[in-house]
């Protein structure tokens, strides 16, 4: 006798059957892909060099990671989990960063052929279309009609949270797997894993594969998905304790299989992350900073078609900056969701989606209330007591909005079906009213095509200078300017050309001297800051955008003896400076290192290795 299941509605009878489901899936996928290309249309003018404007630093970092993955595949091996390609000689731990290793490996041939930015453009386009299609498939499984599931997928796949994440946060924008992960958990809990032998184990194996895959995209969305799944399970289990208790055996079998599969695939990478040579603890970000503003739920940014000058200015002034402005859903959608929850609360799918949406959005507000740009520290929110715990302390709360929007889309879809069922086709006025309300809720969420710009080109003479230096593979090179988190152009040059194979500095999450997680780890030395300041005062850096050239002069200024000591400590195989010999930096380096070994265009190079 099989274990009892928690009863939930099946798909509408007229739409059941694998052939019908496949037709809906293909049709939805095609429409979502067209919509994704429309949103990314300016990138597709030149996918190898066009990048979403607004966050060049993270875009450069992701380009570096995709080049790193592609280089490993070109040498017929998987990418190493720790590398000195950045931040030589200490290196970085990729598991503490956001390399999107799975997409990077799968798209390695495209990266090698057309460059990392082409791969990132593909990832972004598939992120929109794939996220929408994933929720569409999940909604169909849980009883939504084709029309309602199509609308729900559209609301999630192109929600403001994903649109704004497209500004450099590729790992968050590619939110394809979270709906599938939550679906697998709910199927395991409710006994909807199918028939045959060991259905719970098969469902658990699928869940384990999804979890492992998400680890190699971004771990943060896996955590957020787990929170959303727990909330949904708790709501479905309320009032069904006997049925839930009867499923403990299958639950243990499925959960055990999921953990085993995840451990088999991602166990060693996770061990490397927490116990490997380059490990850290805590979060590199200021606590309770990246959280939603309460007013952000109704104030659209300029990325939406329907916005005002004042709302766009409010979003632009958000303390977390626009890539983290994730709360917006608009008054019409919020009112529609409240109406659905009130009218159809008796439906289990509506209850589960509604509670999940509300709880996740409350968590997204952080530890204390931020409203209208003003902090109300006296009002403590639930996250206040969670943000100091070992795991949750590293979570950025505003990103719960991505899963909250998935729950909102599901609630909207189930509500649309419930309303159409309550007022059948014979009552045309009611059906037109439902369509009008649905349209009014969706229109404010229509995004504009993403604003794009051209990524900075490689400095003239970069490739020929490295070729003339004839450096061995893996040689550590001091590139000037030294890259840091707000000064990432050298990472882009390395990503576009594959040269050098290892450089000092970079943009990464790494341990500070205390082991605490920090952006750029220990940060550049005073000597490195001084050399960057000299470069910023020098001509010859035309490839670098003007805002990035604003570098503060270190105090006190390092002496020549300190510079020589720092060079001895770095022990670089070569120095490559994007400058000319007549500049302040060029003259300084010549006085320190002698005449350059090679030079072309606006690049000078010194080979410091013997021979």
Characterization of the model:
The protein is α+β, with helices and mostly antiparallel strands and 611 residues long. Helix content is 51%, strand content 8%. The protein has 23 helices and 13 strands. A 5-stranded mixed sheet has the order 8-7-11-13-12, sandwiched between helices. Strands 1-6 form a two-stranded antiparallel sheet. Helix 9 runs antiparallel to helix 10. The longest helix has 28 residues. The chain is elongated, with a radius of gyration of 26 Å. The termini are far apart. About 2% of the residues have low confidence.
SSE layout:
Layout: H1 18-39, E1 50-52, H2 56-74, E2 82-83, E3 92-93, H3 101-106, H4 108-114, H5 116-141, H6 146-157, H7 160-165, H8 170-173, H9 177-190, H10 199-215, H11 219-237, H12 241-245, H13 248-275, H14 309-316, H15 331-343, H16 348-364, E4 368-371, E5 374-380, H17 400-422, H18 428-442, E6 452-454, H19 462-469, E7 476-480, H20 489-497, E8 502-503, E9 509-511, E10 517-519, H21 526-536, H22 560-570, E11 574-577, H23 584-593, E12 598-600, E13 603-607
Parallel strand pairs: 7-8, 7-11
Antiparallel strand pairs: 1-6, 2-3, 4-5, 9-10, 11-13, 12-13
Helix pairs in contact: 1-5, 1-6, 2-4, 2-5, 2-20, 4-5, 5-6, 5-9, 6-17, 9-10, 9-11, 10-13, 11-16, 15-17, 15-18, 16-17
